[in-house]
Amino acid sequence: MGAKPADNAGAGSMNSTDGYAAYLARHEGGTAAKAVRGMAEYYGQAHIVSVSPGAAPVDLGQADAKAIRSILEWNDPETGESRGRIGRNGRPFYEITTNWPKDFDVASLVNPDLASEYARLHNEGNRNVLGYLSGRMYSQVWKDGAIHSCGAGRFDAVCTTHGTSRDGDPELHTHIAIPNRVWCEGKWRSIDSSRLIALNWALQAMHDAKGVCDPSWRRVLASHGLTVRVDENGVASIPELERAADFMSKRRKAIKEEEERLTRRWCKEHPGQEPDYAMRRTLNQMAWARTRKAKDKTGEKAAPDRDRWWRELNDAGIDLSGFVQPRDVPGDAVRDIAERPATDEEKAVIVARAVRALQSERSAWSEWDVDRQLWIEISRSGLCGDSGHLYSLHAQAKRVAMRSMVRLSDQAKAAAPWVRSVTTRHVIDTETELTGILAVRGAGENTPEAMGESVEGLDPGQAEAAAQICGTAALTVVQGAAGAGKTTMLAACRRELDARGRRLLILTPSGKAAKVAARETGAEAWTVHKLLAAHGLTCDDLGTWTDGDLHEPRPGSMYALSVDDVIVVDEAGMLDQETALRLLRLADRYGCKVALVGDERQLSAVGRGGVLGIAARHARSVVEMTQIHRFHDPEWARVTLGIRDCKDPAAMASRLTGGKDVADAAGGHAVWLGEDGEVVDYLARAWADDPGLLITCTTNRQADLVNETIQRERMEAGSLGADWIGCAGDGAVHAGDRIQTRLNDASLGVANRETWTVTDVRADGITATGDDGRSVRLPAGYVSEWVRLAYAVTTYGAQGATANASIHWADGSRADAADVYVGLTRGRADNRLVLTAADQAQARDTLRQILSQSRADLGVAHASRELEESLPSLPEYDLPCILGTDGEILVEGKPGQSLRQLVEENKMGLARASLCGCDLSGMDLSGADLREADLSESNLYQADLKWAVLDGATMRGADLGDSRLERAHLCEADLGDATMRGADMRGVCLDRADMSDADMSDADLSGASLRGSALDGATMRGVDVTDADFLRARMSGTDLTGACLWVQGHRYPVEASDFDRAYADEAILGEKFDTPAMEQGQQIETPGI
Predict the structure, then answer these.
(1) How many other CB atoms are found less than 10 A from the CB of residue 509?
(2) Mean pLDDT of the chain
(3) How much of the chain, in percent, has pLDDT values that exceed 70?
(4) How many Cα atoms sit within 13 Å of 656 on the Cβ side?
(5) How many CB atoms lie within 10 A of CB 203?
(6) Which parts form a coiled-coil structure per UniProt (predicted)?
């Protein structure tokens, strides 16, 4: 699920391209009015929901297409009153599409019970999404001479649910269209889109957690022999249905590809026209029919057809009948935290994994990033619970996680939940130690080596770099532009060091790069991780290192280090800080020289980077290589230097988009096409013309589209074998395919990112030949997990690679300057860039934006500087908070949150909170930590305080009428003058509490402990204190009229209690005070204390 703005291109969801919205999104000429008309027609019928912070979403009833259009045109759904006017190119609405993994849809086919439970899960998920957005929507408001990010109040949503995809496959999903109007600061205003987009990943993770952790859904699945598996991103799958889900997904993919092909053909046959909605449906039905393998009649999008889907699965040899009948479920199959709360250890694991994951990704993150990762770890924890319990668990975990973090700035703006201003002490300490080691090494002696014949043929920059690497400096930094001949320079270093009896060790980020380095330089080359592992240093999937296992390699091992070794880290810009720190510690231990060779302007580390830049700032031995050798065209070499050191993005974008159309765009090295589908076709044709072409893409999604298209066209041309085997990414491999291995495996003879051509496909695996002529046999298990098609690769996979010609497809929303620079420097003879854009002006603007930004993480010091520089331009942020009784900020909230939300979401961390006079009625405060809190005069009517801890709290004059206080702890609490009429206080602990003059009429205090409490003057008319413990309680003047005081004397002593002058008219006193009736005002005489 995801959110995306509906601008002049219409609306579309980030994870789904269903519906008319996606069609509009692909046509830049679509106006806002067209987007509204199209969505209203596509929805047809929808529920209208009103959402306000602190309240449950309110269903305003159903609406037809006419009413939907009116609402999306910013009219009030109840009164029809206008909330503003949409400009021609304005954003009329945002769309979120909620759905679950295809495995869940297939599970709903198994049995009606599963279908019913799945529908319930989906509806609750939708309510959670709207509730989560409530209080997290913002608008920008000009006030007090500045722009403020203000929390929004009410907004409306148009919700329509479909049971199938447009391709007729099972897919329960809901389109939630949110008109671009929110109530904020006394009027209807536009939504701050950047905040909504920033919230998307946390919103998606929360929604995923609902599907994974819902106990009722998990029990029904378990009763049919189905289990749920969760990956590292919190995404669920059902292993038993993987094949069926894979079949449905591939079917849908084939239909979409055929529909896009038919649409492009229609547009060519009708120049200047676009297919309307009716024609789109016709084209979709044609695509459905052409790709259908079964023989029965095709149909248009209709109601879910379970029987047809069963037949399709059976025709494909997939039998689900074994899951139809329910079976007994073991009692421990589902861990429901409502029945057995999460332990402290389980909570600690959730927090620790979340923090470690955040630390492995970036140097600084936002509060919403924390929310996202905590939801992911809750999904992975194996714990289940209803929405309320999950929110409570998340709030507790977040409280602990945030306590372990530090802010990079104390300005209020930096506390906004979308600002990346949070880090941990570990991140800071790691960079501090890393910087210190580099500074010490960089400050040492620096005498370049006098090079002999080894440097013949090198340019001055290469020769200087070689001399520095072979010299006496403990740290050398060599930065070289793409094509500057770093590999040639390293070969010279190897020759020189060999002649002097020393060893050159080249360490690379990937196994493929290590093999290339060894082949082209003659030096020993491994991955960084392989050397560290040989010394006992390994890391897990979250980048946590086993520092305590450091040991010497076995005697005679090639991984043994000595003072004569020179360690060169190639592509050092991709080295993350955690790995770099371990490598430097190891080099210090053996006295090895370290040289970092790379380019800060190329792609950075996946995680916390900036190592090369930090080293360059502290080293005396620094060389810059700028003479380019790779390209046939000297002018292009000069252009690439301009891209690398881009000081004027607009001018460079104009230079690269110099052509007017596809035919002459090569002069500017950029091509622009109107749709992604056209880009994919263009790249497929280019590869067909030149199979040696290197195609690079910004994202895996782009690479997958290109790979699938080229593979399909090769299949149609008869260039691939008919037999196939499944590979990673839900793909398939045929004989003749170009593939890439993605995991180092010495036993198989393959390295990460090596490319191969498949020569044979069998059920148990494949045979493939590498670029170096080697042949390997890969088992089916490795292929299914670690083999991907490689007609196109990402720029991360291509950095360091070269070819005769290269084309880079830049994603306008994800690419940055480094991505384009790497993509445009892979080809020796030809380098081209392709963009999705309507015309030259848009292509130029998109490229300007790409060249203007960097997504690299360059360390926490750099993140702190960037934050400080950006703060003046950020909107003002008014931070709500809960103060402690001593005036300190106890809980920082979010604009738009009501106090009720702030209290409820942080209920586990409100010890000593100042909440006097607050309206907390009806709130869920079960299990809350309110020790020593000030709740004087507060309204807690009908509040749920089960298991809450209120020891020492001040609650004088508070209204606790009809509240639930079962098993709550109020030791030494001050409840004087409080109202607790009708409260459920069974088993409550009120030891030494002061309830003087409190009104507890009709309350249930059965089983309560009131040892040493003060009830002087309290009203307890009709109270039930069966089995309560009043040892040493003071009840002078207490009104016990109609009370039930049935006390087990031998277990709950009352003889020492002070009932002097207690009123007990018609009281049932039980065992020790068994009197049929007492006159009002009669004193109850008790033994002396």
Answers:
(1) 28
(2) 82
(3) 85
(4) 33
(5) 25
(6) 238-265
Maximum CA extent, the chain: 119
Give pLDDT tens digits for 429-471: 999 999 999 999 999 888 887 777 767 889 999 999 999 999 9
Contacts of 352-359 with C-beta under 8 Å, sequence gap 24+, read 353/377, 353/380, 353/542, 354/397, 354/401, 355/401, 355/404, 355/405, 355/424, 356/542, 356/543, 356/544, 357/542, 358/424, 359/424, 359/426, 359/427, 359/543, 359/608
Runs of H (alpha helix) within 405-510: 425-442, 460-469, 486-499
Looking up tokens 């130690």, which residue turns up?
433
- Please state the rounded mean pLDDT for residues 637-665: 78
Shortest CA distance to 505 belongs to which of 442, 559, 464?
Answer: 559
Neighbouring residues of 446: CB distance < 8 A, sequence distance ≥ 6? 468, 471, 472, 473, 620, 621
DSSP code of residue 946: T
pLDDT of residue 776: 93
Q: Whole-model pTM?
A: 0.75
Per residue, the 3-state secondary structure of 341-354, as one string, reads CCCHHHHHHHHHHH
Candidates 620, 616, 584; CA nearest to 597 is 616
What letter represents residue 514's amino acid? Answer: A
In residues, how long is the chain?
Answer: 1089
Count the Cβ atoms, other than its own, within 10 Å of residue 797. 22
* Backbone torsion region of residue 483, taken as left when φ is above 0, otherwise alpha when ψ lies between -120 and 50, otherwise beta: left
- Please name the residues in contact with 460: beta carbons below 8 A apart, sequence gap of 6 or more: 627
**Confidence class for position 280, pLDDT limits 50, 70, 90:** low
- Are 446 and 620 within 8 A, CB to CB? yes
Q: What are phi and psi of 624, to 5 degrees?
A: -115, 120
* pLDDT > 70? residue 584: yes
At 1043, the pLDDT band (50, 70, 90 cuts) reads: low
DSSP tag of 249: H
605 closest CA partner among 409, 750, 434? 434
Question: Residue 1089 above 80 pLDDT?
Answer: no
Report the alpha-carbon distance of residue 1032 to residue 1010 in Å, rounded: 9
Q: Which tens digit of pLDDT belongs to each residue from 926-976? A: 888 888 888 887 888 888 898 888 888 888 888 888 888 888 888 888 888
Name every residue whose Cβ is closer than 8 Å to that of residue 681 and which is 6 or more positions away in sequence. 264, 709
Return the CATH number of the domain spanning residue range 428-625.
3.40.50.300
Which DSSP helix (H) or strand (E) runs through 850? helix 840-851
- CATH fold for domain 884-1075: Pectate Lyase C-like (2.160.20)
- Identify the pLDDT of residue 284: 65
What's the DSSP call for residue 750? B
Cα distance between residue 743 and residue 787, in whole Å: 8
> Three-state SS across 142-171?
EECCEEEEEECCCEEEEEEEEEECCCCCEE
**Burial of 279 per CB tally in 10 Å (0-12, 13-18, 19+):** middle
Which whole number is the average pLDDT over 175-198? 89
Distances (CA, A) of 457 to 489, 828, 954: 10, 20, 84
Distance CA 336, CA 346 (A): 13
The span from the CA of 972 to the CA of 142, in Å, is 49
What distances in angstroms separate CA 859 from CA 94, 444, 616, 852, 1061, one per listed residue?
35, 24, 14, 20, 73
332 burial level (CB within 10 Å; 0-12, 13-18, 19+): exposed
For the purposes of burial, counting CB atoms within 10 Å of the CB of 773, is it exposed (0-12), middle (13-18) or buried (19 or more)? exposed
Going from the C-alpha of 121 to that of each of 125, 247, 987, the distances in angstroms are: 6, 24, 35
Q: Which fold has domain 671-798+813-842?
A: SH3 type barrels. (2.30.30)
Average pLDDT (1027-1047) is: 68
- pLDDT interval class at 1069 (50, 70, 90): very low
Select from 678, 718, 688, 709 the least CA-distant residue to 789. Answer: 709
